[in-house]
Design goal:
154 residues, alpha/beta, 6-stranded mixed sheet, 6 helices, 17% strand
Length: 154
């Protein structure tokens, strides 16, 4: 927990450091409790633990600090449903929550849906993976960092 003015307490020092070190185009994975975070991070990304926190709560806090990339069609991506879950019409209500939070942060772009194994490969190239306690199925989310204009850097 960080106790600083203006910094959401759910953001750990490790996550704050990662957000600060990320550059334009770097990606951050907010991983649900079922995501193979340690295995993925063995391939390179930094693993940050946020056990017990839901992704929506963490996303709201991260979006207070992280500019989203406006140079791509969608700065946020989720893992798409596998064929059997599509066939049975599985609903993923957490995606609506993510869309709402992203909208409040200024992004009107739709969530990009990425096939499961392509999502894993993309996660291996991320700057960091935040392993959360999110229990919603298909709760994983990738955010792409944008830029801050010079006038906001002062």
């Amino acid at each position: 927990m960080v106790v600083l003015k203006g910094i959401p307490a759910v953001l750990s020092p490790e996550l704050l450091y990662a957000l600060a070190k990320m550059g334009h185009g770097d990606e951050l994975v907010l991983a649900d409790a079922n995501f193979p975070a340690s295995s993925i991070c063995a391939c390179g990304p930094k693993e940050i633990r946020a056990d017990g926190l839901g992704i929506s709560e963490l996303l709201e806090a991260v979006l207070k600090l992280l500019p989203l990339d406006t140079y791509v069609p969608s700065p946020a991506a989720v893992m798409d449903l596998v064929a059997s879950d599509k066939q049975r019409g599985l609903a993923v209500p957490v995606w609506d929550t993510y869309t709402q939070l992203l909208g409040q942060a200024g992004s009107q772009a739709p969530l990009q849906k990425v096939e499961r194994f392509a999502f894993y490969e993309r996660a291996k190239k991320a700057f960091a993976v935040v392993a959360t306690g999110e229990t919603a199925l298909y709760g994983n989310l990738i955010l792409k960092k944008g830029v801050l204009p010079a006038e906001l850097l002062q």
